[in-house]
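> call design_seq(struct)
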């Protein structure tokens, strides 16, 4: 996303031609590269839903300037894979990153369907529940004393969604 780091600290040193090709996510994905989402970089907000949305629209809602190289934005599916299976691949954790039989399934339940809402709304997503090994370990409503039934077993039926790109 455009920020003071990319605009003020990086652009003067790499020049306009390289700056126009900054963070070529779509090109790398098209070439078959594994992309891993997440950050420990101190100039990046450590907010996963902001990172997921930014990989798609490459904008910075806090700055009044155009998105950074929109041609390199990812689809929703690519961004979600980057932040799940891609991160697991980077960590050499073949037992995580996707939901399939035989894999660990620590899951989160969100307050919205991030495959359907406008991209800008993804940034405002909240986690309702976090499940680890089938048990609720975080409940956003626990202050009110409302826990899901069956100790976090099935909180609802999963529905398969088509790729909304």
């Amino acid at each position: 996303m455009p920020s003071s780091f990319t605009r003020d600290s990086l652009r003067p040193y790499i020049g306009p031609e390289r700056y126009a090709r900054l963070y070529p996510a779509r090109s790398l994905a098209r070439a078959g590269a594994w992309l891993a989402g997440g950050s420990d970089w101190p100039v990046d907000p450590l907010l996963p839903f902001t990172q997921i949305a930014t990989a798609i629209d490459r904008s910075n809602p806090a700055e009044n300037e155009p998105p950074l190289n929109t041609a390199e934005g990812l689809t929703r599916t690519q961004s979600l894979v980057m932040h799940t299976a891609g991160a697991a691949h980077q960590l050499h954790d073949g037992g995580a990153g996707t939901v399939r039989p035989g894999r660990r399934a620590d899951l989160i339940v969100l307050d919205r369907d991030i495959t359907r809402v406008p991209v800008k709304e993804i940034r405002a997503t909240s986690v309702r529940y976090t499940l680890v090994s089938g048990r609720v370990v975080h409940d956003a409503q626990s202050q009110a004393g409302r826990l899901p039934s069956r100790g976090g077993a099935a909180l609802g039926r999963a529905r398969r969604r088509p790729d909304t790109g």
